[in-house]
């Protein structure tokens, strides 16, 4: 007899057979909750009749939550696998939202182009592929509505972190490196790629929120039109010194350097990538107001995450892992909060980062940070 497992996520119940090749990742629940909250913010912008689309629906969890919790009037849910689509439809029936979800089984790029051809133009478009989102970015841009949101996933963390550099160059046209801040750099590469694709169509993507959950990057972008507003000055590179761990960022249009200003070692160049903010402050505040209804452990987790994101705004496009710095100067790893306090007392800007529990974003140099850290013990 075929065995099925019952999962509960938010207000949704999900049945998945152990024999069916349908992927469901419970670790992605918080990223999906953030998507639901973003959809609620979007309803304030456009009113009640919000249309969403899910290009890789899988088990149907996102599409169902967007209806039940996000309040979408209709969701266009697609998966190239007929097996996945059967599961998703069954789960939509289980959750009594089948009439508000329109299912299709097409290759994902064809699905996105079909939205444009039919002039559906969803307000909220979810792109959650396995691997790189780069092949789908152009179709997603052209299928999306002006002022709407595109929520993309990147799971190809090895290439983005410099382990398979040739794959990163092939997918993003970018150089990567194995650094302690590679997940942030990877997010910036994804956003930078999206911006360059949008620029070809006299458009741009405004980053509203960037989230790293330990296994994937989730990036929420707002679609805008206008070649005059293209943020070319915010596309550039970060550079990392493999010897002394100094790091810096510079614009593509600015002066480039290939030698470390501290020790003259040849720098590892990362990019092109996005140098601007990963989050929008006003959007995060609106997200906080929507998240206030969550209580208990989940509510505290969302609030803590949004606070860290807010602290990242306006900071340099990298961070320092203080455990790595401690190893470099041969001291015990001090309290992250204590190091931040000392940096601020010394006149530097400093904050935690959600990318790494031991990470600190600061405008202090690596040498200034290393000098301060022993005093935090």
TrEMBL record:
Pfam families in the record:
TRM
Asked whether the keyword Protein transport is assigned, the reply is: no
Output the Gene Ontology terms for molecular function. Answer: tRNA (guanine(26)-N2)-dimethyltransferase activity; tRNA binding
* GO BP annotation list: tRNA N2-guanine methylation
Matching entries from InterPro entries are given as: SAM-dependent_MTases_sf, Trm1, tRNA_met_Trm1_C
Keywords linked to the UniProt accession: Methyltransferase, RNA-binding, S-adenosyl-L-methionine, Transferase, tRNA processing, tRNA-binding
Q: Which EC number(s) are documented for this chain?
A: 2.1.1.216
Question: Superkingdom of this entry's organism?
Answer: Bacteria
Question: PROSITE patterns, alphabetically?
Answer: SAM_MT_TRM1
Q: Which NCBIfam families match?
A: TRM1
Name this polypeptide is given: tRNA (guanine(26)-N(2))-dimethyltransferase
